[in-house]
Amino acid sequence: MRASSRGVAFFAALAAVACLTDFPNPLGPVSEGFIERRLLGSWNCVQADGSDLGTMTVLDFDGKQYHVSFASEGEEPEQHRAYSSRIKEGNFWNIQSIQPKRDTNWSFLEYSFSETGRLLLRAVRPEPFEDIREDPAQVRKLLEVNLENSEFFEPAWECTPKESADGR
Questions:
Q1: What does the alpha-carbon distance between residue 48 and residue 10 come to, in Å, rounded to a whole number?
Q2: I need a labelling partner for 59 at 20 to 30 A (CA). Which of 41, 81, 96, 153 fits?
Q3: Cβ proximity of 94 and 108 under 8 Å
C-alpha cells in the first residue's frame, strides 16, 4: 500500500486498506464543536499492528474546529477539517477532507487518552449504519448504544506526542 493510501485510510477512518467515507452528515453542528487542548500539536501514529502511519499535526483553526494534516514519508500532507462532538462519555471527531479533489462525506473518529498520555483513535465503521446513514440523529442514537461494541469500530490507532526541536 502506498504511503498516501495509508494517510487516506487513516483520516477516512474506516479501514487500513480501503477509503470508505460513508456519512453524508456530521454527528452534530460545528457551532457545538469544542477544542480539546490535549489534541493540539504533532503526533507520531501507528496502526494496531504497529505499522507506521506517519505524523499527524492538529491545530486550533477557529476555536471550534481543527485543521488536521497527516504526513507520510515522501508524500504531500493530507489536509482535513475536524471538530469534536460528544456522545455520552465518548468524544468524536467529525472529519472531512479539504483537499482540492475531495470527498465531501464525513468520517468519525472516537478519541481518548491513555494514562500515559497517548492518543487512541478508533474509526467508526459505516456498515452498521447503512440503512440510517442519511439521518444524523439516528446515527448518533445507534452509535450511543454501541460505544462498547467493537463491531462498530476499526481497531484503535495509537499516537504519541512528537517532541519538538527543543525537547518538549
A1: 12
A2: 153
A3: yes
